[in-house]
Each structure stands twice: as C-alpha cells, then as structure tokens.
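User: Could you walk me through two proteins back to back? I'd like the raw sequence and the structure tokens for each, with a short line separating them so I can tell where one ends and the next begins.

Assistant: Of course. Protein one, sequence then structure:
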Amino acid sequence: MGERMQEPRIAEGASIVREDARVWLVPGVIGLVALGAAAALGFSSPERRSDFFHSYLHSYTYFLSLALGALGFVLIMHLTRAGWSVALRRVAEVVARAVVPLAPLGLLLIFGLHDLYEWSRPDVVAQDALLQHKQVWLNPTFFIVRVAGYFAIWISLTSFFFRASVNQDRSGDAGLTLWMENAAAPGVIVYAVTLTMAAFDLIMSLYPHWYSTIFGVYFFGGSFVGFLAFGVVLLHFLRARGYLAHVLHVDHRHDMGKLMFAFVVFWAYIAFSQYMLIWYANLPEETVWYEVRQHGPWLGLSLALLGGHFLLPFLALLSSGRKRRAATLVAAAVWLLFMHWIDLFYLVMPDSRPQGNPFRVFDLLCFLGLGGIFAASILRRLRRVALVPLRDPRLAESRGAEHA
C-alpha cells in the first residue's frame, strides 16, 4: 500500500519537468551561437581552419564519448540485471539518445578530412609507402561509410532500449524487461566492436603511422568514467530541483561513486598497460606517438593526467563516506569531467600543436557550441518522458535497496 501511495509522487516529479518548457532553449541558443562563431573564425584562413577542425573533433569526441558511455551503462545494467540502477536508468537512456543530434553534427568533419587526416590527402599518400599499404582501409569514402554505419547501429541500439523502456511506462508489460535483458547480450558485443572501430577511425587514425590494439579499450574506459561523472552531476541537478527527491537516496550515490572509483582505476590500468608495453618494446613506429607527449607543454599535460585522472580521484573516492556525501561526490564528478576533457585533448591535439601554448580560442567555442546542443537535446527529451521507468518490475527494489 505504501508503494502505491508513493507512485504518484514519482509521476508528479516527471510532470514538473514539463512545466520547464523552455529550459532547453538557453543551452541550445548558446551552442548555436558559439558553434557559428567558431566556424566563421575557423574558415577565415587555412591556419585557423586546421585549428578549428582539431578543436571541433576534440569537443565532438568528448560529447560523443559521454553518450556512448551512457549506452554502455544501459547495456551493462540490463545484461547484469542490476535492480539497484533502475531508478537511474531513464537518465542514462536519455543521455545515450544524444547520439541522434550528434550524427548530423558529425557531417561537418567531412569538410575537414584533409585538415585532420593526412591519409585523406592524395599528395601525401603518393609519397608514403605505409599509407599506400593502409589505403584499403584509410580512404575518405570508406571512412565516411564506416562512421555512418557506426551511428546507424548506435541510434538503433539507443532507440530500441529507450522505446521499450518508455513503452513499459504505458503498458506495464513486465515481459519488456526480459526482452531488453535478452537483447543486451548481443547489444554489448555490437557496441564493443563499433566503439573500438570508431576510436580507431576518429582518433587513432590522426596518427596513421602509429597503432595500439588496446586503444579502443582505453577510449571505452574514459567514456564510461565520463558518463558516470556526468550522470552524477545531472542526477544531482534534477534531485536538487525536486524531481527525484522521493526516488533517489544515498545508496544510489554510493553505488555511482563505487562505479566511478572502479573505472578510474580501470582507465589508469589500461593507460599504464598501453604505455608500459610500448616503452618496453621500444619500437620507433610505436614510441613516436609518446615522443611528442613527453616534451614541451605536453609533458606537463601528461603528468596532469597521471595526477588528475587517477591519483586525486582515487584518493577522493576511496572512502565510503565521501562517496555517500553529495557535495564530495559531485565535486569529484565535475573534476573527472574536466580531466576527461583533458584526456581527449591529449589524444587529439599534440601533433597539430607540438610547441607553444596548446590551447586556442576554438577549444572554448567548440566546447560551448557542441556542449550547448548536447545539453539542449538531453533537457528537451527529459521533459517529454518520466524521469524513472515507472512500471519496471524492479523499480521498488531500486528505490528501497540498502547496501552495506
């Protein structure tokens, strides 16, 4: 009886979002203005054009990684039948659906292929035997086809799980839960393959003479940490506005904190494994990637990642008490979002800006532009659906679970 009496309060929390009818307009307008300013400035000269496209790729992969991290969270929660996460899952489903607006935004990268990827320039390929050998895979037409395929798969996956979850809100069909759990197993396999290949194509192929077979796992680790941090911030924002006050409790914070802690360690383990294996083998075609990152301003950024993406969050999230306190957890999450931005900057930028100040005005404009559109798409979708899966059979377990 008590559970039934509390159910309308969950529905009421969702209806309040609909009252904020224009909450998504502000970030959307900021995003469009900033992106327009970045494009106008970037196309004003060849030098600025290269800077613009590198900044755009950096911000694009940053927000794409958050959406893909959310999709991974949804798939893993269904695959493991994690009852504790049901109350958090709708937010993850909505963030994952941000791949939809990100798909057309990726079209802009087509105009910057020659500025970003040397393998796309026939004059460069004609003088490089290795690039000629890799031309079967690294050519503009096949690259565009592959990236379009990745987005088609991601949009299909997010659409399936989002629609099934929302349909369950209306129908109450418990069979939809089993359907999603069964689909999660093949979904994880497809997700892992496409995410890995996308990381190779979008980022690793910026340096076509270098390769790392572990790079896709590295990108996944950072993406998952990024989404967990973003999810903590977004859920805190919604709860502070009264939308989820009767649904989320301290144990959800604790669980998200534990996941963040685990994947901070996982990211550090993969980063160290990649570095250690390349350092130990000491092969010129592999060490060249780290060479530029160990000199000039990039050495400082490399050390900042060691301390900021691992040591500091490791210590901050080590205590169970700190993971259960909202202020501490949100502060750690904001810090990790910043360090994830630095991590992708470290992956994308060094060869295009080897000396001097690595930061440009385009970095801020592209971040505001793509970030504004990303935030607007999430807030707009949040006001159209309930903030929790209202009729998922495990919702009561998620709301009432207590953990040691």
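----
Protein two, same layout:
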Amino acid sequence: MRKTRVLIIDDSAIVRRMLSNALQHEPDIEVVGLASDPFVARDLILQHKPDVLTLDIEMPRMDGLTFLRQLMVHRPLPVIIVSSVTQEGSAASFEALSSGAVDVIAKPGGPYSVGDIADKLKYRIRAVRHARGVRFSRMRAQVGPLHAPVSLSHGNGLVLMGASTGGTRAIEALLTRLPADGPPILIVQHMPPHFTRVFAQRLDSVCSMNVVEADDGQRLQRGTAYIARGDFHLQVVSQGGVLQTALNDGPPIH
C-alpha cells in the first residue's frame, strides 16, 4: 500500500521538526512537506498532493481556521488540528470541527512537549486517511437539499445514527432537515470527551427538534435527539415499559 503523505503546517520551526521526526520513521507514513503558514502550505499542497494535513490555528498572515474554511471549499482534504488553543471542549476546537477538520489534538503546552502526542497523531493519521466527511460540503452543493421522509413524523420506534471521523457536518445537515416531532433519535459521533456537549448545544440551536447530550436514565421522548457522550457507551434500556438511556464507560469499541 502507498504511504500516507502528510503535510505539516505550523509556524514554529521546533514543532515542525518534532512532528516530522515523530512521523518520518513510520513505514506507512511519509512527510512530504513542512509549511510555516497557509500561503506556503498552499503551494506545497499543489506540488506534493498530500493525503492528510496537520494544521496549527495561531499562525502569521492567515490563521488556521480561515485557511481550513477556504481549503474545504476549494480543495477538501482530511485535516487534523494540532494546536495549543484547542483544549478539550474549547470554542476553537468545535469551530475547527464544524469547519471541516476531521479531528483535533491539543498540544500539551510548549513546543518541546509535542513528542507527548506523537502516538496519538500517528493513530489519527492512519484513521483519517480515507475519511469522507471532509467532502460532504462539496457533495451537498452538487446534490441539492436533502428532503426528509414525510412518514418520519408519524413513525414509531427509534432512529439510530452513527458517524465516524469528520461526520459532524453531515449530521448537522441531516438533522436540520428533519421534522420537530419525529421519533427519538440516538446519535453516536466519533468525538473526544467534552466536545459532545458543545456539539449537542450547537445542533439544538439550529434544529427544529431538541438536541441534548445523553445522560444516564433519560426517558426517550419524541422530538428529541440524544448525542452519545464522549468516552461512554450509549445503551437503550426498558424500565417498566419506558425506554430510557443508560451510559457505561466500558472498554472502547473500534
């Protein structure tokens, strides 16, 4: 199999070198370029055609979020944010995910601590190489609006949705087109802990239905979507004939 081609974008020369050193000895990963800002990155993308980008947010001349939004319009690619401003649950983290990033990794602090996230970054690169969520915005523009089945408003039972890395925009596009009075919807989205509450709040603000982060023992109600909490398994159990949620933190499932 061809190696996964990675372009590293960060304004710190130390961080660029440390990320490159962490990846260059992997047999299935190739670092094809190092960029100090989005303008250099733009030329390297055209030259080397990388499979995955790592992207910092705070950079000179153009910030990472602005570059990310432009990239998703003109040349969608899987992008992993690696930044000190994307701590768990931060507004910048969710803004990056909403703008098309497939994952977010927070720098622990200080350029020399980048080595601490090396294993996490390798895992993410391998996981997102074939991610398709980043192409959703272009696909949606081509196929036009999505029409929800009319029968959903009168249906019973449950609606279950699952999305992997890069699925946040697809879920939002789908839920905003569904009616307010449909059956309960349970959603599992690949997302780090603390992000799921912010994700639920974002969806609740733009959807006709209610959207909440699932809690233990919540009664399932029509017109409500339940986002599985990060790092927890979401189950549906029957208590006295009433369906409700149950959370457990057992071993993660691939």
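Residues 150 and 173 are 17 Å apart (CA to CA).

Let me know if you want the two compared in more detail.
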